Amino acid sequence: MKKILFTGFEPFGGESVNPSWEAVSLLPDRIGLAEIAKRHLPVEYDTVADLLRQAIEEEQPHAVICVGQAGGRAVLTPEMVAINLNDAAIPDNAGVSHGGETICQDGPAAYFATIPVKAISAGMMEAGVPAAVSYTAGTYVCNNAMYHLLHLLAGEYPEIRGGFIHVPYECGQVLGKSNMSSLPLPMIAKGLEAAAKVTAEVLEAGTQDIRIACGSTH
Questions:
Q1: What is the number of helices (H) and of strands (E) in the chain?
Q2: pTM, rounded to two decimals
């Protein structure tokens, strides 16, 4: 049995809920070959790294999948890459703003996810959940969390897989918002369950080649 740690965020940007945490909280304690652990994260640049480290030390997972809200997207989007940049138009929930600063001075320009991104997207689709691989996690706290996670894993926990999944608004969030996409919360959670199953299968298979881990066939 492999352990997968899922994290979700608190609401931000004037929203009363964040479907990332709401969906994570719906996940059962066991999914296929995986034991599931869950953590709730604040939307704050300066605390995410320490909280991720704490969660990893306490849970000792085989993989970490952070989940965040991407309002305006119509499907679940497993992220392929995080970039070393904080640059967003709005402040975080602690009032901190960034306008083009690097996340880690000693870090590379980008990290690729080490969970099976393409296979996860395919698994979501097979489960009846709309999904697509994304190549931009933005430059707000979601990207910040993904970058910090992968930087931490690369430096201190190379045996742990890590990545990020963005989810759309849940249906209640788009009431009164014109032409805004959303998905039912149970469907979002179903997509995360599919991600857990695919990731656990890769972990059980012991695949080490990052190309295979990311779903590449060449």
A1: 6, 10
A2: 0.94
